[in-house]
Inverse folding.
């Protein structure tokens, strides 16, 4: 899947990639570093990463990277671990490029991946320190639901029917 929509004059392509590929590893490292800074008590990868990269390899899931001419600018994954929903995880956009629609495009691409895999519902969790992410989810039609997992860093859970 490719999305060549330009952002701020730059073409950004969103495509599936191995979560072990260098661009994916780079994005995930930035994502975890940011969580460590933004979360009230930091982020311990040993506590907060409940699945390995294999969860984002077909047929278990998909990992997407958004890349511009200078390299990766964002990422996100979707896993198919539950029979009745897919779970979106690890969404991140380079802070210098936020507010340009890249996160929304990644979210839509992840939803499309879940739908194409046969899921009619997606879920995700989030930390209270990420209000701008919550706003993206709510604008995209997600609604808050009760706790559905045991993520120690999650305070808010969302769900969307893909129809």
């Amino acid at each position: 899947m490719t999305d060549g929509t330009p952002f701020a004059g730059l073409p950004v392509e969103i495509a599936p990639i191995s979560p072990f590929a260098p661009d994916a590893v780079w994005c995930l490292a930035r994502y975890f570093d940011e969580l460590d800074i933004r979360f009230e008590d930091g982020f311990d990868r040993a506590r907060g990463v409940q699945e390995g990269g294999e969860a984002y390899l077909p047929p278990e899931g998909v990992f997407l990277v958004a890349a511009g001419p200078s390299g990766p600018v964002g990422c996100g994954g979707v896993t198919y671990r539950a029979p009745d929903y897919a779970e979106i995880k690890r969404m991140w956009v380079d802070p210098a490029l936020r507010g340009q629609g890249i996160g929304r495009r990644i979210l839509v691409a992840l939803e499309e991946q879940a739908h194409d895999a046969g899921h009619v519902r997606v879920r995700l969790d989030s930390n209270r320190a990420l209000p701008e992410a919550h706003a993206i989810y709510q604008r995209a039609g997600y609604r808050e639901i009760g706790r559905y997992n045991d993520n120690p860093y999650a305070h808010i859970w969302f769900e969307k029917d893909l129809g």
Notes: The longest strand covers residues 71-82. The chain is about 30% helix and 30% strand. The two ends are 21 Å apart (CA to CA). The helical segments are 22-38, 45-48, 102-116, 131-139.
